[in-house]
Amino acid sequence: MSKKEVPIVIITGYLGSGKTTLMQNILKQEKRKIALIVNDMGSINIDASILNKTGNQVSQVEMVEMQNGCICCTLRDEFMTEIERLSADKTIEAIFVEASGISEPSSIAGAFFNYEEMTEDTRVYLKSVVSVVDVDRIYREFLHDLMTEDEIEDGDIINLIMEQIEFCNLMILNKTDLLTEEQLKEVEEGLRNIQQEAEMIPCVNGEVDLDVILDREDFDFEEVEAYSAVQKALNNCEHDDEKACVDEYGISSFVFEERKPFNRDAFNNFVENYPEVLVRSKGYIWFSDDWKHVQLFEQAGRNASITELSEWVSAWPEEELAPIVNDFPDLKDDWDETYGDRCNQVVFIGKGYEKAEIVKLLYECIE
To answer: How does pLDDT run across 270-311, given as a tens digit for each residue?
Structure first.
């Protein structure tokens, strides 16, 4: 057996998707001795309290509760410390990590791989990143836009769900009993539009065989990172192509780039009347009334959001900018005399659209 003997499985999925139910069923199977780390953002860890009531099977499981933070950021060091402590037990055959519903799996996996590179004698390795998907919610909110007013106001929810779906090598499609066969097929096709490689396992109440999760190829960070339709578009599309790139699933994508800013009102109107043929969009933009801030634009299905992020480097005061450019001269390689590093760069992904028509709509928003 190789030096790295203990597989780590990260379970992600949005709040209410069924992560804890999945873990309860895994614990009941008693096939292997596993350790379990439960991460919850609140001060009271409800998920761990539920798992403690599973029955005698839990007595065979080493369970660690991590509260008041997220293992992809504030609890990162504590997370890795617990991983090493658990892996020291030679009887443990695998460690499962139930991530917080608002965790970004790419950040967790990235932190794990950074740790692996810096720690030569670690016994652990990342086996899988599993995304538990509430297919009923995907059907209602991603495909058919039947959201409550509260959820409409928080457009980041569906984008987080999409991130969790995009960055995984196994999707567990939970709550399939709530959909008809036709509706489930529609959800599967919709998910394939944005994540074309990860295996899909339909289930009810999180009932999945433990061996299905553990007996598979090891996780490959770069490969999984390239799974998403957004990343594939960035990797494969020529930005000056007249036609969009088309893959084997009939999904086409292109990257829109333009230095000049968007008019905020015009772009908001474009978003309000978003072309239904576009299933996923993501990128950085800027507005003519704000030369300072980078804006993140994200769209998934019928949901879209614009979030103010950091500042453009060219917006920094000259006394701060000059030493940065001096230390990192490559910054000026793609520097515009008028706009500096400001640039709109968005990936658009869809089916059955004409790139020229979408580009025309976008240029109508440019000032």
So the answer is: 998 888 888 778 888 999 999 999 998 888 766 788 888 888
Q: Which of 265, 274, 267 is nearest to 299 (CA)?
A: 274
CA distances from 15 to 27, 76, 98, 111 (A): 20, 20, 12, 22
Phi, psi of 162 (to 5 degrees): -65, -40
Taking the complete model, does pTM exceed 0.85, yes or no? no
All structural domains of the chain, each given as residue ranges with its CATH number in brackets, are: 6-225 (3.40.50.300), 229-363 (3.30.1220.10)
* Kind and range of the H or E run holding 8: strand 6-12
If pLDDT is split at 50, 70 and 90, which confidence band does 152 have?
very low
The model's confidence at residue 200, banded by pLDDT at 50, 70 and 90, is very high
Give the span between the Cα atoms of 103 and 70, in whole angstroms.
Answer: 7
Instruction: For the sheet with 303-311, list strands across it.
Output: 245-246, 252-258, 344-350, 278-287, 290-300, 303-311
Query: Rounded to whole angstroms, how far apart are CA atoms 273 and 270?
Result: 5
SS percent in the chain: helix, strand, coil, step 5 = 40, 25, 35
Phi/psi class of residue 254: alpha, beta or left (left: φ > 0; alpha: ψ in -120 to 50)?
beta
**Contact between 97 and 51 (Cβ < 8 Å):** no
pLDDT at position 263: 96
CB 262 within 8 A of CB 345: no
- pLDDT, tens digit (0-9, with 9 covering 90-100), for 81-93: 778 888 888 888 8
Find the largest Cα–Cα distance for the chain: 69
For 58, which DSSP code? G
Among residues 339, 194, 167, the alpha carbon closest in space to that of 257 is found at 339
